[in-house]
Specification:
It is a single chain. The protein has one domain: Four Helix Bundle (Hemerythrin (Met), subunit A). It is globular, with a radius of gyration of 18 Å. It contains five helices and no strands. The protein has helices spanning about 1-30, 50-70, 75-100, 115-145, 145-175.
Length: about 180
């Protein structure tokens, strides 16, 4: 029985790692890669940065609520709120990809605090790539009632995911 569980975990972890690499590579390509001719400006995506920041803020709020719920041992409510946080993060990702599909390149920073902006941006980008597999593994462990393993990884995932969500809002505020 234990061997079957380990094989199942191994299978799903492979899927999680593949999905994580594909998502990260797709985002990097969309931001830095060549653009098809005539795509930029084809649809108006000017409101999507605000939508993205809002989704990041909502995700951060859900993460905090979920943390408070689990501290109160309200497991069922915690699970619902965490799945909702995952949903808002997924909506952010879709919106972010659409934005960068129709708008080429990263938004240039023209503010007065580059010494603050760039460290936030760099840590945000690195941790955003790392949070994809961490969040998926944490959700997988929780969904499959692997409580000890879930708690262990959630102690890492929660602060990183919260940081990525909050710095997403900060980056938006500094850019726009």
């Amino acid at each position: 029985m234990q061997r079957i569980k380990a094989q199942k975990d191994k299978f799903w972890f492979r899927i999680i790692y593949i999905v994580s690499v594909v998502i990260s590579a797709a985002i990097a390509f969309l931001i830095l890669g060549p653009r098809p001719q005539g795509l930029e400006g084809k649809i108006d995506v000017s409101q999507l940065p605000f939508v993205n920041a809002t989704l990041n803020g909502i995700t951060a709020a859900f993460l905090i609520v979920a943390y408070l719920l689990i501290r109160q041992k309200k497991v069922a409510q915690h699970k619902i709120v965490m799945l909702t946080a995952f949903g808002t993060s997924s909506m952010f990702l879709v919106s972010y990809i659409i934005y960068h599909w129709f708008k080429s390149g990263p938004e240039p920073y023209v503010g007065n605090w580059p010494q603050v902006y760039y460290p936030i941006l760099i840590t945000h980008i690195v941790l955003a790539a790392i949070i994809i597999p961490l969040a998926l593994i944490t959700l997988y462990r929780g969904w499959n009632y692997q409580v000890v393993k879930h708690r262990r990884i959630a102690k890492i995932t929660f602060p990183l995911w919260l940081y990525v969500s909050l710095t997403g809002v900060v980056i938006y505020l500094m850019l726009y």
